[in-house]
Amino acid sequence: MNRKLTRADTMIHQFDTVLRTLLPHAARSSRPSPVAPDVQDDEMTVEERRHSEGLMRINHTGEVCAQALYQGQGFTAKLPRVREQMEQSAQEEIDHLAWCDERLQELGGHASVLNPLFYAASFGLGAVAGVVGDRVSLGFVAATEEQVGKHLNEHLETLPPGDHRSRAVLRQMAIDEAHHAQLALEAGGARFPAPVKFGMSLMSKVMTKSVYRI
Ligand SMILES: [Fe+2]
Ligand SMILES: [Fe+2]
């Protein structure tokens, strides 16, 4: 039975997504974790585990931002024809969020206390880009996904050699993010000029530096 969604339905759905994103361990993945049950870590020192925890906290916050960005975009952008595709990407971000959360728990770590702040900022940016127009909004998604892809590749290189379980999660995420960027560009996203991308990478540096520890 299909009925047209009212404004109230949309608001309730949005609020539900906010809670699922920000409440600890509330995200549920729709795909199984990319970490095969028989994959075990090698011995890691205390410092190595702490480093893995810091990197996975950054990735977890990155996924909180991705949720907020897609949600902000969905709130204001028109996205004719491509809305379903963008919702599919947003669903995959929930998988990422849940996988990072699981891995953080395994490492004995906690999600960043700054997540609500980054959620609000990313939602705002996504919504503003959506108001400006779909080309900008989709371009913003593409540029963000490319930025996330760069981080993931850096993290894959700097993870402790024995951390096979985090590595398995990040590998699958890198594949998905590259696909999200490609979808957003194919859907008509503008390619952002280098100075805008540079500004975005400065902002992401602020995020990674702060979230690594808290
Ligand atoms: Fe993601
Ligand atoms: Fe993504």
UniProtKB/TrEMBL annotation:
Cellular component terms, GO, for this chain's entry? plasma membrane
The cofactor required is: Fe cation
Co-factor binding comment: Binds 2 iron ions per subunit.
SUPFAM superfamilies per record? Ferritin-like
Q: What pathway annotation does it carry?
A: Cofactor biosynthesis; ubiquinone biosynthesis
Protein topology in the membrane: Peripheral membrane protein
Q: Which domain of life is it from?
A: Bacteria
Q: Which UniProt keywords apply?
A: Cell membrane, Iron, Membrane, Metal-binding, Monooxygenase, Oxidoreductase, Ubiquinone, Ubiquinone biosynthesis
Q: Which GO terms fall under biological process for this protein?
A: ubiquinone biosynthetic process
Membrane keyword on record: yes
Task: State a single Gene Ontology molecular function.
Answer: metal ion binding
Q: Reaction catalysed by this chain?
A: a 5-methoxy-2-methyl-3-(all-trans-polyprenyl)benzene-1,4-diol + AH2 + O2 = a 3-demethylubiquinol + A + H2O
Give the main EC class.
Answer: oxidoreductase
EC number(s) recorded for this UniProt protein: 1.14.99.60
The family annotation for this protein states: Belongs to the COQ7 family.
Described purpose of this protein according to its UniProt entry: Catalyzes the hydroxylation of 2-nonaprenyl-3-methyl-6-methoxy-1,4-benzoquinol during ubiquinone biosynthesis.
- Listed PANTHER family: 5-DEMETHOXYUBIQUINONE HYDROXYLASE, MITOCHONDRIAL (PTHR11237:SF4), COENZYME Q10 BIOSYNTHESIS PROTEIN 7 (PTHR11237)
HAMAP family reported in the protein's UniProt record? COQ7
Please report the name of this protein according to its UniProt entry: 3-demethoxyubiquinol 3-hydroxylase
Task: Please report the organism this UniProt entry assigns to the protein.
Answer: Billgrantia endophytica
